[in-house]
Design brief:
This protein is of the alpha/beta class. It has eight helices and 19 strands. Bound molecules: flavin-adenine dinucleotide and FE2/S2 (inorganic) cluster.
């Protein structure tokens, strides 16, 4: 799969004067007259905003305060698809997983992976707005990096200004030219954020992240993602695979802060016990819940491991019901296997909130 050609993250070379473009009707008019800046008009709302050269439409709309449907922000979920009524666009990530062969015929575009080539009119079919936080562009300076497990580190960045986001959401880091990757915050909003990330040897995004030295700054767009805590008292199951522990930890912390009293089960799966990073921290937060339970699961372990063996889906199969609410985050095979179990048990998609890490 090609590396990200663009996502919602900013480019460092963009003019510091331009980010206000589209934020007000006057600003939008001014910016639209600049070379390469084009206006997007959204139907049926009639809202309009200006897209900077190479910027994706979703990011430009969110920056201007115009609601557009979205969830993943990088091309995997398809939530942001809009119909191109008039004008020309350019695809930023033609191989994005959410692009369907029928989209071309129907002129449906992923606004998160499409930029403008002329002024355009788009029609969105999903109505909004959902409750959300606008995406902001920040500069993040790496202030701390710690090894947590084999090839797994935590990265703490200080933001140049605080960012507002929900626990469970993620940011898009610009790790090099045309190299943008998503990483989930492990705690709620503030001016310092921490990611937990695995290094996949020889692969561009995680290698660039792990090569960062303390003191270095990177552009970051924040927040994205729909895996934030829903306000209900259903019994809840959270499933973390590997570094999926970061958003799950953030969600459980949020539940503890809200003093939620309903049953909460956290399934945390990894290949080996050493890869169950942040386990003590997660256990301490789960212990704060009135009815919290943590089940660590590993695929491979020696005889000293007394816990559950297998995958996170092993204990899930025994406890999943359609009445639960689910939050799951981790690598695609784990997410796909979990979704298969949830489908089998009849859980509705409206009760499942997912961050698929790829
Ligand atoms: C919502 C989300 C949250 C994530 N959170 C975390 C986390 O907290 N910790 C963690 O370790 N990893 C996380 N990831 C995974 C992370 O973003 C990287 O995919 C991972 O670090 C591997 O990147 P790589 O370049 O090294 O590997 P590669 O295998 O080379 O990267 C490929 C992956 O990059 C993505 N990609 C490829 N092309 C594009 C494109 N044009 N635009 C956007 N994305 C593209 C795809 O996901 C693909 O699977 C998350 C991923 C997503 C989608
Ligand atoms: S594919 Fe665009 S928001 Fe998910």
């Amino acid at each position: 799969m090609a590396p990200p050609s663009d996502s919602a993250a900013p480019s460092p070379q963009r003019s510091p004067v331009i980010p206000q473009a589209g934020a007000s009707p006057r600003g939008a008019r001014f910016a639209a007259e600049l070379p390469g800046h084009y206006r997007v008009t959204v139907e049926p709302s009639g809202d309009s905003f200006v897209v900077q050269p190479g910027e994706n439409i979703l990011a430009a709309g969110r920056r201007a305060g115009v609601w557009l449907p979205f969830e993943c922000g990088w091309g995997s979920c398809g939530t942001c698809k809009a119909t191109l009524i008039s004008g020309e666009v350019e695809l930023l990530f033609p191989d994005a997983p959410a692009i369907d062969p029928r989209d071309e015929r129907r002129r449906r575009k992923l606004t998160c992976q499409t930029t403008t080539a002329t002024d355009v009119t788009l029609k969105v079919t999903r109505l909004g707005p959902f409750e959300e936080r606008p995406t902001t562009d920040r500069v993040a300076q790496l202030v701390d990096k710690r090894e947590l497990g084999p090839g797994i580190c935590s990265f703490t960045f200080a933001l140049d200004a605080p960012a507002d986001f929900r626990p469970g959401q993620y940011a898009i880091l610009e790790l090099g030219p045309d190299l943008r990757r998503c990483y989930s915050m492990d705690a709620g909003p503030g001016d310092e954020i921490t990611f937990v990330a695995k290094h996949y040897e020889g692969r561009p995004g995680s290698s660039a992240l792990h090569a960062l030295k303390v003191g270095v700054s990177v552009p970051i767009a924040i927040p994205f993602g729909g895996m934030w805590l829903r306000d209900d008292d259903s019994s809840t199951i959270l499933i973390a695979g590997g570094t999926g522990v970061a958003p799950v930890l953030s969600l459980v912390r949020h539940m503890a802060e809200q003093r939620r009293t309903h049953p909460v089960t956290v399934l945390y799966g990894a290949n080996t016990p050493e890869e169950l990073v942040c386990l003590d921290e997660l256990a301490a937060v789960v212990a704060q819940l009135r009815q919290g339970k943590l089940v660590p699961v590993v695929a491979q372990a020696d005889d000293t491991w007394e816990g559950c063996r297998g995958f996170a889906t092993t204990p899930l199969g025994e406890i999943a019901t359609p009445a639960h609410r689910y939050y799951l985050a981790g690598p695609p095979p784990m997410v796909d296997a979990t979704m298969a179990v949830l489908r089998e048990c009849g859980a509705g998609l409206d009760r499942i909130h997912v961050d698929k890490f790829g």
